[in-house]
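Intended use. Records like the one below are meant for learning the mapping from a protein sequence to its folded structure. Do not use them to infer anything beyond what is encoded.
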Amino acid sequence: MRVKATTKFVRTSPRKARLVADLVRGKKVTDALAILRFTNKSVAVDIANTLQSAAANAENNHELDRGDLYVAAIYADDGPTFKRIRPAPRGRAHRINKRTSHITVIVDEVRQDEEV
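Structure written out for the chain above:
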């Protein structure tokens, strides 16, 4: 059974979040959390929290064993962009785009006949 958790409006660009998401896609939850703990990117903390939330949802709501879970899907979609103005030379103004992302983690149970 697939169980998901979503974190919205994370203050990092989706492009940077996808770099970290690619590291844990398809891994067991315990291995993915260990990888995220030692990943030197600030978005790794947000992805780890979302992964722990998905695992807790699976445990508490669907009575699945945490040791049998793996990351079935993980993706970072675009959120709203905050548009700011910064002064530029010669009296001009440049736009600064502060991007946000929505992180979604889907975990599933490993079948006994399958191995990740």
